[in-house]
Every structure is written in C-alpha cells, then in structure tokens.
Amino acid sequence: MASGLPVITTRNNGVAELIQDGEEGFVLEDFTNYDALAEKIGIALSSRESMGYKTRLKAEEYPIEKAAEEFMQSISGLIPYN
Fold first, then answer.
1. Would 2 be classed as within a structural domain?
2. Is 32 in contact with 11 (CB distance < 8 Å)?
3. Which of 6, 50, 53, 64 is least crowded, fewest Cβ atoms below 10 Å from its Cβ?
C-alpha cells in the first residue's frame, strides 16, 4: 500500500479491514477462486494509477510510528517489570 500499488487480499487477514473493495484494491471472499483472482488482477492492472493513488492515501493514514506506538501500548501491560 505504501508503494502506491493496488492490493488484492483475502478476508483472512487484518489488511482487509482497511481496503474498500474496488477502491484501493480488492478483498477476495474465497481465496481458492482463481477466476475471481485473475479478474481482480486484470482490473488492478488496468486501473493501477487511480487505484494506486487511493491506496497510497490510505497507507498514509497508518504511519509506522502510529502502528509502533499502538503496539507498544497494547503490550505494555504484558511485559513484567523488574
């Protein structure tokens, strides 16, 4: 996403929550549906400039610093202090 490339993913991971299907890329409901995957690849390639732009904008909403801070907050209660 940070590279400005359309994303094709499945519902089985966290990035699917960030993708508006058909805007920044595609979310496949059935990862074994190879015909759907081929179709989405074709659309992503033909729309890579506009979809890629939207994907980059979406990625900018989630900078690595924000992710690292949220991760540290989530584990701060799990780390025993000596």
1. no
2. no
3. 64
* 81 domain-assigned: no
Give the predicted TM-score (pTM) of the model. 0.74
Q: How far apart are CA 38 and CA 61, in angstroms?
A: 29
Give pLDDT tens digits along the chain (82 positions): 999 999 999 988 878 988 999 999 999 999 899 999 999 999 999 999 999 999 999 999 989 898 888 888 888 876 665 5
Pairing of strands 7-10, 25-28: parallel
State the residue range of the domain holding 54: 7-75
Does residue 64 fall inside a structural domain? yes
Structurally, the chain folds into a number of domains equal to 1
